[in-house]
Protein 1
Amino acid sequence: MKKTYAIEVDCANCANKMEQAARKTEGVKSATVNFMTLKMGVEFEEGRDPKAVMKEVLANCKKVESDCEIFL
Amino acid sequence: MSRKQKRMLIRIMVCAVGLLGLQCVPKEVFDQLNGVLFPQAGRLVRLCLYLLDYLVIGHDILRKAFRGIRNGQVFDENFLMAVATLGALALAIYENGDYVEAIAVMLFYQVGEWFQSYAVGKSRRNIGQLMDIRPDYANIQRDGTLERVDPDEVAVGTVIVVQPGEKVPIDGIVVEGTSALNTSALTGESLPRDVKTGDEIISGCINLTGVLKIQTTREFGESTVSKILDLVENASSRKSRSEDFISKFARVYTPAVCGGALALALLPPLVRLALLGAAPQWGVWIYRALTFLVISCPCALVISIPLSFFAGIGGASKAGILVKGSNYLETLSRTGTVVFDKTGTLTQGVFELSGIHHSQIERERLVEHAALAESASSHPISKSLQRAYGKDIDRSRVENVQEISGNGVLAVVDGHQVACGNQRLMDRLGVQVIPCHHVGTLIHMAIDGEYAGHILISDVLKPTAQEAVEALRTAGVTRTVMLTGDARPVAEQVARQLGIQEVYSELLPGDKVEKVEGLLLDCEKQGRKLAFVGDGINDAPVLSRADIGIAMGAMGSDAAIEAADVVLMDDDPRKIAKAIRISRKCLGIVRQNIIFAIGVKVLCLLLGAVGMANMWLAIFADVGVMVLAVLNAIRALFVEKL
């Protein structure tokens, strides 16, 4: 399953870091962060609840870039 | 400006004014305070004032750096800036010297960040506006009054009303009214298109003159405008190799420079101390190491590369060229071979009936049978037969339609077995054909297994096709190839007229894939890429097989939008060369930025290591390069003159 979320982040490097963090989150198959359109596309692994996974993703992103936000 | 940006701007100004003010008061004035309360009171007051100014501009960086360390993110730019400026401050406190440097470095860093955020926000909005074709509402007539509804709620088959000046929200057919449509947001074509009752109309156009009533043929989510928006919005998520390179580079670069800084701070003094027996000069080397840290931020690169691609994709869509991803823009710029499909790409795909020969029955009946047999097909030839027939088609007269790809159609019409197709179909059925000496596309007919004559139709070249092939050659495309299922004389005549180098004719769809695969191998040897241009109606496999699939005039053709990597919104083949030129310009800018940014940084690192660059130069190198790279990136947006 694939979903797209609006995000808020200040710099392009921070967006790259968010992407890395999201990819490492359990339950995420792949993730891309588009800094120009401020969007994060996440593909979830089979049978995962996107809501629960996204909570983890947000927590992990906050760890690498405290100023970021994902609008769930 | 967002609120965040405004607040930052105020902080920048307060800090700058504060710094200027403090600079006007010489150290000696503070020194007079020494001994008023305690011996070093003047020095302390001066330190506190400068520290205050420093905190005004840098408190958020310090906070982020601290949080970063707590979360195990040591090498981020906040940390680097914090260490560099705090280090410089510490040196200044130790010497009771110049605090300006630490504050100024932080100040410039923040100015750079602010500018970056402003420029990116601005171009985000600009490119957003460019693609602002999203309709907000649809009008439905209810009880004699117009009602505005969400286009998502309009069911297929509903009649909607579009007034002059409004956007067409959903694809449909005009049931009442005539008007001119501005399609420039979709096609880049500035000439309005006239529509009348019965015409198909696609969403995203702006209605200019008359009120139109449109019966919708699709849901909003399936309409052209939604598909295009979806495509464009997701375009820059497909990352190019340059972007991947940069994010990998950024990940290595910062730690490497930090390591370098640490080595620079420790090794030379230790060597001096242990081996040369000289004074270690800790201050000098720590200062040089701090200079290193200031240069270590990869911002300029990291921001300017995606911004260049984003601007390039935005500029292309302004010209009616939709590029599905940055990676395709990159591939497009390396195109060396362009393979065309003939029908609908170089020719208008509008066949005109130019002759009926050897008909064994009345000519009208022959055309009628052909039109009925082909009534289920969407092939341009079928369409032209139906047009030539000119009357409404009663589909109930047709049964058992069997389409044989690349051959033709078999069907039962009014109880008679009708075969309608090319020579191959007739051979397959074992029907003896009478050859034709005219140049054109032949449709042989057999009724109940007996040859019934042939219909000659010919295609019309697009007026810009020749120019398009010429433009490709000037754009550096070395090989042009045409593939067609059409007969050899027709294909060769077209190729000669247009100046296309190679022709492969009488191909079945499967043969086209094979041919393209062969050409792909040749291309690979040259290190160039192959682009295939088709109209998307029956080229989907070839479009997806080529390095770059370009679909022409693809508005409304779902299969093409799906399969192609680049979609040309109008039928103009000249756009192919334009797309290549846009991609070259964009990639040129990307390369300039990579070389420029890395070059300046490496130069500054070297100068910093030998002590020829101070922190001022370092921060100017960092911020200045970023500003220039961002401005350069925005250049990719301007594509009109290409």
Note: The interface with chain A takes residues 64, 67-68, 71-73, 76-77, 113, 116-117, 120, 124, 127, 233-234, 236-237, 239, 247, 250-251, 298-299, 302-303, 306-307, 310 of chain B (CB under 8 Å).
Protein 2
Amino acid sequence: MIHRAHVVEACALLRDDPDGLYTLPVFVTAVDWPDREPAAPRYDVVYQFRSLHHNDVCRLVVQVPEDDPTVPTLEGEFCGMDWHERECYDLLGIVFEGHHDLRRILLPDDWEGHPLRKDYVSFGEPVAFTHNIEWALPAAERPPGMPGSSR
Amino acid sequence: MAAVLPPSGGLPGGEDPFAEGRRRLGVAADLDTVELTEIGEDTMELNMGPQHPSTHGVLRLVLDLDGEVVRACRPDIGFLHTGFEKDFERHSYQQCIPYSDRMDYLAPLINNLGFSLAAERLLGIEVPPRGQYLRVIMCELARIGSHLIWFGTGALDLGATTPFLYAWRERETILDINELVSGVRMHTSFIRVGGLMADVPDEFEAMVRNVVHTFPKAIDEYELLITKNPIWRQRTVGLGTISAEDALAYGMSGPSLRGSGVAYDLRKAQPYSSYDHFDFDIPVGHNGDVYDRYLCRMREMRESLRIIEQALENLPSGPVNTLDRKVAPPPRNEINTSMESLIRHFKLVTEGFHVPRGQVYQAVESPRGELGFYMVSDGSNRPYRVKVRAPSFSNLSALPYMVKGGLIADVVAVIGSIDIVLGDVDR
């Protein structure tokens, strides 16, 4: 577990140090813990690297708070992190500062919310029929309080 | 010298609708005044997919073309995103298995295995040897089946129709085995947490032996058709090259990485499910081009057959499921006679088992590369979070690098050579 200010240098060290040589970026993702004790940050950003030379994997965890879910991008160190960071932003809303093209990757560009957050309501959305036709409206024009909208 | 097209493009009095297209192509409306666009001055944006037969699913590529040359490639994915990771959080562990089938739908059993191994590591249970060997046999059959699809469709993309039909014929025998053991041909959900759906029937051994005996000849036949075929070599040798360092930086794995000369296979490097009991080689390429990735996969099918043969020879007897009754349901005859077994069965079916708190990363070698399951448990009967590390996702992210500067016709060859499954990319 490390602080986000040191992520880039830690990963560069893991990659370049002869005892590490973690050259293969496996993934980056995040785990949402909204019910952790109040003082603890809400998100765990999880990095995983693989060293083919030493046949080993290494996992780094960076905790980021709810009101500022940002970590620096690792794009410059591993070009393979590009898409993984976009996916993490798309599904969990973690912002990777300095990423050249931080757009949604799996969901449509106009999607609202980040589905893998624990407070995202992902079932019970009504289907728009005549009696609830307002559900078919764009999200901004929908009456407030309809189920299925994300916080 | 005659002006073939009327200057207005044929529409009386209206605007010329083809003017923009002519300008880009360097064709003047009046052929006497043809002006060719200078190379590099203007690129054309071409949309390829998502409904394109050569993109192996719903992959959309936006290509910047300079004539025939690809200057940039921007993949657009997500058309098959199904939210499986969210589904995992809402289902008990055994209920997640059918979802894992549907991610990489060409080798569903290997997805089952990855999920099951991750959950078993959290539970701290081990599957008996017979279960492990049967898992290996089924997974290697799935790997061959997946490679056969890659071979057939990849060759079809480049204009060779015959291999497609041959590969489908052979794959049918593998699907028959799936049907025999599980009742389902493709999304079998045969591998479960704690073992297998059931032990295999008696006909299983003969059918697998048939595969082991007939497939080497079939693969010889494919190689005769394709491997030294001059047209195939012209379309694949030296194309879509990627060096070992770049492939690693992009997070590539599996045969796509081994084609660049990196001998890394999780079955050898970090053996799971008794893979260390078997003797097999890791085929590697040298040049990292489409042809080397092709050769790697063809040889991999032969290695898989070797593994199946050894596993079948040494298939242990005994149970296939773990004996831990907190995970595996009791046998049917016990339920009839024992109240405790009946209660246990009821609890397992309605509630599932609880998995101790913790987190684990379990990677398996799928036909496409490193398929990883990062599983976090909070002690309940459902996974708290499952992150699927999809091999196709990382492999596809290297596509723009591999096709840049090549010809548009070769984009199709490169997509075929990294063997993506869009269900795996988008999850």
Note: Helices of chain A lie at 7-16, 81-92.
Protein 3
Amino acid sequence: MIISNTESIPGRRIVEFYGVVTGNTVRAKHVGRDIMAGLKNIVGGELKGYTELLQDSRKEATDRMTEQAQSMGANAVVNVRFATSSISQGAAELFAYGTAVRVE
Amino acid sequence: MEGNIEQINLFLNFGLPFLILMIAYFFGSYIEKRHFRSIRKREAELLDFPVVSFDTMPDDWNVSRSDMVTGSIVISLDYFKRVIAGLRGLIGGRIKTYEPLLERARREALLRMSEEARTQGYDAIFNVRLETSRLANARRDGKGVAGVEMLAFGTAVKFASRFANSE
């Protein structure tokens, strides 16, 4: 499965379009991580726990998107976009969407 | 005995916040300077790695494989700078303390994306996009975790033979 945030796959020709595919995940923060982040918040800098949490979540959203594309018979997803939305205090939705296509 | 309790109260009410403010100021500035040093050093190492924001590839790129790469960071402001920013919010105007924070987050996200692409054996990245999002539990009163996430993503490509089309 090839994914790309451009409208085509570089060096390949699109032969069929399947439509929009999406993948999402909703995550809540971890209490232990939040206490550490709270302490880290005094001196500033990177909050590694959160960086990892969001990276994992984004990967899961992307995986779900590619699974959906695969089940349609596609072998690539083009024009992928990411979005984040806050559901409530301490929970966030991450989703990825793109267009499932078949390339040569 | 009563004098002691008064002293403790005085310390808890004024001394402790001041102490935390000082700790935040010194460590915060140190962490920021160190981060900028590291960013400049790594950016110098990646000077020969093309990262472009065009949405189409330059014509002379002959590509054999491609994939999407991402880089991200969650970063927060130190307590001292948050207090300054809060005061600044009362009178309005430019909040200088936030500018370096967002700048270093953005540059770090771009660097992580480029480093990931390079370790996977790619030669360049195009159609780079940047996104900023605020963490949900950042509260307006300054309590809670005030973090900003910066995400950089783009399409990494490997050249079959560089500039083959232009020859």
Note: Residues 2-159 of chain B form a domain with the Translation Initiation Factor IF3 fold (CATH 3.30.110.70).
